[in-house]
Amino acid sequence: MKKKKKLHAVYAIPNLILLLFSITCIFPAIWLIYSSLKEKAEFYHSPIALPENPSIQHYISILTDSELLKWLFNSFRTSLLALLFILLFGFTIGYFLSRYRFRGRNALYAYFLIGMLIPVHALMVPMYVMFSRLGLNDQWFTLILPYTALSLPIAVFLVESYVKSVPHEIEEAAAIDGSSRLRTIYTIVMPMCRPILITIGIIQFFYIWNEFTFSLILIDSQELMTIPVGLTLFKGQFSTDYPRMMTAMVLAILPTMIIYFIFSKQIIKGMVAGAVKG
Amino acid sequence: MGYLKMKKGSMLLCLLPGIIWYSFIILVPVILAGYYGFFDWSGGINKTFIGIQNYIDVLKDSVFILSLKNNLFLVVVCLIGQLGLAFLFAFMLNSRHVRLKGLHRTMSYFPAVLSAVVVGFIWSFIYDYNYGFINAFLKLIGQGDKAQAWLSNEKIVMALVAIPLVWQYIGYYMIIIMSAMSSVDPQIFEMAEIDGASGWKKAVYITLPLIKNTLIVCVTLCIAGNMKIFDLIYSLTGGGPGNSTSVMAMYAYKSSFLSYKMGYGSAMSIVILVISLVVVGGSQLLMRHFTKEDEG
């Protein structure tokens, strides 16, 4: 009896440590959320206490009288369009790399591999110069260009290894039934790759939603900014109004939070697969 | 495979758009950066060719050296803090005596999906002098005299910058390590337990070697991630006070876009590229070397 009790006490320690760690992971977001419901004076009086009279006035004023909604929209539009291209090109290149042993195949594979090793900040200056020379900077579509290209390597590799598990007999059968090669690839094989395409979509959505450097360099006008850069602008303007700033941050992370907590299992699985294979 | 035959031309047509797009964004800028690096250039029409002077200057630039040191500091801290704690937590979470496993997984991964800018701002509120969480907490427990302007203290500011960084990605590595652990045959652990291996021995002598390959991936990701860190520094300290928390990417950004030294910034980009490749590649070789010795 005694021994059993002692054992339980031992197991309480890892349970406690993990619980504490989990709380610290989520607490800053909770602090943001309840602080955003406070008045400025109340927050300055006690930054930690829960709000006495929770009010959503900051939310109303930010959503009606600031660019934040616009920035959120820009982030969504950029993410969705970039994802479309990433999935289309990533699937196409990944498929051919996986199915065919053409000349230059290994070189092409290595070419995409190298892209993953290049730190994005090495591209900062020349990309800025190139984009401004060609008039590509500060447009609504500007950020789709780097985000698509930088996401391609991981998409290509994940598709390449996934297609190996798709039996090619299916494609042969389709060919016998008279389906053209391209039709088979895009209407039969591509839907079969849905799990990996979803994984790629999830990983790259978070990357694009959070991306900061290129957005900072390539976009100048306020109405075209994405949410991370918009937030830095917002902080400059409202540096003394903490609850207002915190409200903006809550709104910025809300879409990711909702998506994350609904799909956390798939997201975690997908990200791990992406990290390990990539 | 006969049915899968395809004309070379049409295959090329499928591949080309993606390849061109990718080359335009990745390859062309790298070549251009190397080229611009040879010029004294502020972004305007006039460029003066100065040979490799920019490259030499970058390597002699004391702020650049400091930034590189800060990058390496973060690499070391994160290797120990992130991977060390991640392994520890993953090991604990794998034990059958731990409850709420799903909850821990979901919670601990959450910071990894936040943008680094938001994380930087959150922690700047936590460290804030007047209304920050830490100082408010110190006052609450009667230690108000210990309150200070945390991020202005040059002696500890790098450590303070490292904390949110470590915090944000422990869960990420923990999940990766856990997925590797779960693919290990549980019978191995049972046998070790029968042989009397304690928790720690099990962790060090059995689990660690079995998930070696995953750990190598984690180390590589961790090094590469910290060599290119930028967003968090930008939003948390902006590289300050002074240049004390500057990192390579931050300094390249400031030189190019705030001081308009485009040629110099380009040269720095190339130096960063080379240093990152050397550090990542070197660590790979080192790890392969050591893990091979283990086997032999």
Automatic annotation (TrEMBL), chain A:
Ranges for domain ABC transmembrane type-1: 72-263
Topology in membrane: Multi-pass membrane protein
Signal peptide boundaries: none
Domain of life per record: Bacteria
TM helices/strands, residue ranges: 12-34, 76-97, 109-131, 143-163, 184-209, 245-263
PANTHER family per record: ABC TRANSPORTER PERMEASE PROTEIN MG189-RELATED (PTHR43744:SF12), ABC TRANSPORTER PERMEASE PROTEIN MG189-RELATED-RELATED (PTHR43744)
Record-given protein name: Carbohydrate ABC transporter permease
TrEMBL record, chain B:
Keywords associated with the record: Cell membrane, Membrane, Transmembrane, Transmembrane helix, Transport
Superkingdom classification of source: Bacteria
Membrane topology of the entry: Multi-pass membrane protein
Main location as per UniProt: membrane
InterPro entries the UniProt entry points to: ABC_transporter_permease (IPR051393), MetI-like (IPR000515), MetI-like_sf (IPR035906)
Residue stretches spanning the membrane: 12-38, 72-94, 106-126, 156-182, 203-226, 232-253, 265-287
Cellular compartment(s): Cell membrane
Residue ranges of domain ABC transmembrane type-1 in the record: 68-283
Similarity remark: Belongs to the binding-protein-dependent transport system permease family.
Record-given protein name: Sugar ABC transporter permease
Organism: Ruminococcus turbiniformis
